[in-house]
Amino acid sequence: MQILEAQHLGALLDTLRRRNYTVIGPTLRDNAIVLDEIQSVGDLPRGWTDEQEPARYSLEKRADGAFFGYVVGPFSWKKFLFPPRHCLLTARRNGKSFDVVGPQKNDIHHYAFLGVRSCELHAIDLHDKVFDSGEYADRNYSELRREAMIVCVNCVEPRGNCFCVSMKTGPRAEEGFDLALTEILEEKLHYFVVQTGSARGESLMADLPLRAAEASDLERMERALAGAVQQMGRSLQTEGLPATLNENFEHPHWDDLAKRCMACGNCTMVCPTCFCSTVEDLTDLAGDTAERWRKWDSCFTSDFTKIAGGNIRMSTRTRYRQWMMHKLAHWVDQFGAFGCVGCGRCITWCPVGIDITAEARAIQQSSAAKTV
Question: How many H-runs (helices) and E-runs (strands) does the chain carry?
Answer without folding.
Answer: 14, 16
